[in-house]
Amino acid sequence: MATNRIALGINLRKNKINGNSGYGKYYPVVDRQQTLNLRGFAEHMVDHGSKWNRGELESVLFQITECLPELVAQGVPVQLGSLGTFYPTAQIVKGASVASIEEMDGLNPNTLVKAIHIRFRPDATKLDNLCGPAFKNACTLELRNIIETEKVTIDGKVKVLQQLTPISTAVAMTRAGNGGSTSGSGSSNSGTGSGTNNGGNTGGNTGGNDGGDGMQV
């Protein structure tokens, strides 16, 4: 069935960790685009037919960004409808512990807790399941690029540079280099190339730390 959903780009990155069982193989990472700010998000809501204008939506969203951290800082999880729940967790100081109940007398919790993180747990109810495999069904996946990384030293600091090569281009170059048959490559290039051209800003913030179903702030 035809769909007009914008595709979620999937790039492939080569495992370069020596000794790792997956060394030399390619693994998927999400092609993350440029972050949308609060004003842009409000404009997106207006484009989706909201009965409120951008200024009104932006004002409400801004209040959420102020009130939500305030409540979470008090240990109050906040559920935003079918989106999910924001809640606090404690990061323990390395090696910190309390050996006995007696040691708890007058204990300063700051000696145990290194940081408090705001975490997000997507809704997992049957009607609004935004977790892992279920959320994948809401996405249209599209293969886009191979990510090549290189460490360089600039002004004494080591930085990682990235280069994105469309998968269709990499496949064609590899076949040409190996002297293999290019029959069928036209079909592959046509499908992947079309997806890449419609993929938007495929170079934006690609290859960041892709986590699981949770988000840490």
Textual characterization of the structure:
The protein is an alpha+beta fold and 217 residues long. The protein is built from five helices and eight strands. It has helices at residues 38-47, 54-72, 132-136, 167-178, 185-197, and strands at residues 8-14, 26-30, 78-80, 84-92, 113-122, 141-154, 157-166, 215-216. A four-stranded mixed sheet has the order 2-1-6-7. Strand 6 and strand 7 form a beta hairpin. Helix 1 crosses helix 2 (54-72) and helix 4 packs antiparallel against helix 5. Mean pLDDT is 82; it is low at 182-217.
Please supply descriptive tags for the structure shown above.
4-stranded mixed β-sheet, single chain, 217 residues, 4-stranded antiparallel β-sheet, disordered C terminus, alpha+beta
Rg, rounded, reads 23 Å
User: Which runs of at least 5 residues are low in confidence (pLDDT < 50)?
Assistant: 182-217
Q: Which strands sit side by side, in order, in the main sheet?
A: 2-1-6-7
**DSSP helix fraction:** 25-40%
- Derived from helix and strand composition plus strand pairing, the structural class reads alpha+beta
Tally of individual helices: 5
